[in-house]
Amino acid sequence: MFAPAPFLLKDTSVSQVMTQVCIALVPGIAAYAWLVGPAILVQLVIASLAALIAETAMLRIQKKPLAMFLSDGSAIVTAWLIALTFPPLAPWWLVATGTVFAIVVAKHLYGGLGQNPFNPAMVAFAICIVSFPALMSQWPSVGLQLPLVDQINVILGLAPRVDALSGATPLDAMKTALKLGEGSQDVAALLANQDIYGNFAGRGWEWVAFGYLIGGLWMWQRKLITWHVPLAFIASLVAISGALWLYNPAQFASPLFHLLSGGAMLGAFFIATDPVSGCTTPRGKLIFGAGAGLLAYIIRVFGGYPDGVAFAVLLMNLCAPVIDLLTQPAIFGMKDTGKGDRS
Amino acid sequence: MITRDEFNTIAANGIWKQNTSIAQILGLCPLLATTTNAVNGIMLSLATIIVMAMSNFAVASLRNLIPHEIRIPVFILIVAALVTVVDLLFNANLHELYLVLGIFIPLIVTNCIVLARVEAFAAKNPPLQSTFDGVFMGVGMLWTLGLLGAMRELLGNGTVLGGIDMVFPSLQPIQLLPESYPGFLLALLPPGAFILLGCMIAWKNWMDAKAAERARLKPPAPVASAGCH
User: Fold this and answer.
1) Complex confidence, ipTM
2) By the 8 A CB rule, do B52 and B138 touch?
3) Are A131 and B186 a contacting pair at CB < 8 A?
4) Whether A282 contacts A228, CB under 8 Å
5) B89 — contact with chain A (CB < 8 Å)?
């Protein structure tokens, strides 16, 4: 539905698409809730409420019809992506601030639904990780089993935030150990000795990634997204991580570890595929996905942040208009010059 | 001499209508870098006011002697000499603040506002008017930078007037928000300055639009009342 003309399919409404995206997120959310407990569901509610309030306020200021825009569900999708990318025990105001910023600044100040050059959820993540780096890297430690009441108390700030609650993400732990070890640490030994690592990647987190993969494949099967962006994202992530892993398996984790860690799967299927801030031409989508995968790997392995997917997607959002311009497909009946149609 | 009307026009232009920061959007580099708190923004603006008043006066006085073809280098020489004076004064008297503002005091030379006022106003108008123009352009910059700095430090740290002890050693910054405020670092970073400046520009445009609407609805004032002072 987001391809250049000619259109053959009947246009699906925005709200139908957004509902299906939410459904596609369910397997991932279910695995997430099984891993860290119901805190994530609380965060989803907080983010959704913040998004709806911010959306209502912005629509009222602009005197746009409330019912039509509130029910399209796009704010809810943004809110859910924010809740899923923030640490599950983050204080409520952190998630709310991120969501309000995404809706007000990243979405409405740029013209509202369909006009935003940057993915709102990733803007929220970037803003918060730059502004509150400590809170944004407090991920729950492995095997943390807190009752729901305690989890809610931590989120609402009624209970103190104890250090024992949080640990590094598997991705971050791997990077830190390798950097501090300066060559003395071995990926295989790290994977075998530390219990934050599971069968393929982070213990438990790998199943969350599988959940996103299932949801993403379902979206592809429903033709909500095309295969271009996720495949290019995954292929370029596998290519760069595989090349470095083959070069030095002791210092670089395997492609499987990278695919199932951090936000790679969520990014490949749900974030980089955003039709508004991404590319629209098929070739453009391939470039967009490949660029995002490559940048995500570079930032997460060589950069200072725990994961690179958010910044990678934002950087590619910046390039998307130019990529689209240079990859216009040939007009039907015309010869493809390979340079794109710039008229 | 200067008439009251001329004075009012110059003041209104500098403070609101042609405000350097929110109407002409000039001098963004010092604006982004120094408005991490109100004191830094105000002190840089004060330095700019001194430079602008003196350079406008100097250029307006010499305007008939400066050959038109080489006026820009001459203007820059005058401005640079005055900035050096202000730079040395800051270094001697407000040394701590001088270290904070750092390169941005010498950089007043290259601030487009200074050269813009010299070229657009002082080179064509008498010294008195030009001096007032420099002062009021600076006052416009002062309140915008002060307000922007206050908002940024309030959002970023929860304080206002941070760094006031560098100017008046007896005063302390005021903690407005509770101690537990986590600090929204983005407000202190350049993107935060851009976003807040954007909000201020939007606010000015909104006020202007409202004023224009009022003026449109109000019947035009009788012609006879104009020019009675």
Assistant:
1) 0.78
2) yes
3) yes
4) yes
5) no
